[in-house]
Amino acid sequence: MNEKYQVIDFHQYGGSAADSDRLLMFAAKAKDIAAWAGIPRKGWRIRMLFQRWMTESRKNELVDFFGRASTCDPENNIDYVVCPTAIIVAIQGNAEIVGDEIHLKYDRVIDPEQAAEINLKTLSDLLLPQVKSRLDASGVEQLEHFSANLTANLQECGHNYVLEFGFQLVQMSQNTNLFIEAIGIPQEELPELLASMEALCRPALVVDGQHRLMGAASVEDDIMLPVVALTNASWIQQIYQFVVINEKAAKVDSELLNDIFASSLTPCEQDEMRENFSQVKVDIEQRIAGVLAGRDSNSPFFHMVRLNLPNRPESEAQAFISQKTIQHLIEGGRGSLGWRSHSDFYEQYVKLTYPAISDWGDWRTGKWKEYWFTFWATVREFYKEPARRQLNDPDLEIWGGDGSNLTKGVALKIFQRFFMEVKIEDMIKQKASNSMVREMTQTLVEAGNITQEEADQLISKQLFEYSIPLDLGDFAEEVKRFLDKIPVRFFTANWEASLDDSSGQDSLLFQMREAYSRDNWRARGGNVFRA
Fold first, then answer.
1. pLDDT for 76-93, tens place per residue?
2. Which long-range CB contacts under 8 A does 192-197 form with residues at least 24 apart?
3. Do 455 and 375 sit in the same domain of this protein?
4. Full domain range(s) for residue 38
5. Which of 166, 360, 460, 521 stands 20 to 30 A from 188 (CA)?
């Protein structure tokens, strides 16, 4: 193959005649790059290589990404997605520039139809001079001694894996079967070894972007990728650039990305972006939940969510609830049940009222958000005035403030979890107690007095009283009846500072159940309360 690409040839720091800052920029098809650029992928068979292991899951994720991203649909405002950054490659030797074009020639040096043993010898003969040129005099002497006295066991080389690879290449070149037997490599792993070695014989090596490249190259359509090429780059220079790129490339903070979406776009623009994000499977909704909960004026968490952003508004200066806590309250995790997504909560408590799960759980249009806001707004208002009256302390803040036990992250999660579990348990108990009603209605059905449909409706009516109310005001009253059983002193007692471990969370949940079921509850010492 002989590929030609229009190239921009320049020195990054200006005017130098050396290759140290010379860069070449061009665009090429991903499939072509994958054909002429090798990936020096690290593996335990050849430890001197420097690229990270190719993870199949990451590759598949990017295949899916590029497959979706390349499907442009202007009628539905679905745009192409530009490749995040350029693929960085290192040209081995001098780059061939003719006019304004770079020429990259490569003919495969092995025949995949031949036996693996033959291809191993071919590759070892090509690579041995390269490796030998990188060794010092002592290393060259050891290599020559090993070549003259070939054995199955390699000579001691400490942590010099380049020298170790040299020994392996000598074995492969002189006695391929001896190498295979000595290293104990199964026949099915030989293709992987051949691929790693063959990559080193190509005119360029990938320094950064192997997953992006393989993902784009695996898509059926041709995808053009931007390429930045280092010229005449030594092995040392390639590894140096690899380390610098991966060490110094600062990933944009997740919370800043969330804030950009939530505050830099109009609601209509957000809806348009959501469609585009869904096409490339970027989960934006869960990520921005904390931002929206903290900045939605209807939210009980308004100005309470800590966004960790530079130059944040003064109204958020005292915010203390983390975005992660909000995400856990909505989606579950770290001791919490997800209000929007917990299957038992929906099946037992919600489904009778909202039979279509999308009516409840859809991120944008689902009713979960209204009920979630109502639940926490009711909690906030319920404990405000009673706390001040009961404790005769006009300055006491149960909702809000960094020192409030109620609004500690772990307390929010356990409190919501307890409410959800109570509602699930109530419905399960009610279903069990309805067995007599079922027997009676079934007798009436068999006698022809009512139809099966009428019997089912009668049972559903009994259960409907325990399902989530259709009216938000009725739901708020139901929440208040729940809160009546948890005294305000539960949140004003002296708590231990940390409840991060699961045993502390379990103890807190136990104490909450105790307070709920006992009129004379009092704090007990242990993992939660100070004695």
1. 555 555 666 889 999 988
2. 192/43, 192/45, 193/43, 193/45, 193/46, 193/120, 194/110, 194/116, 194/119, 194/120, 194/123, 196/40, 196/41, 196/43, 196/45, 196/46, 196/49, 197/46, 197/120, 197/123, 197/124, 197/127
3. yes
4. 2-106+203-248
5. 166
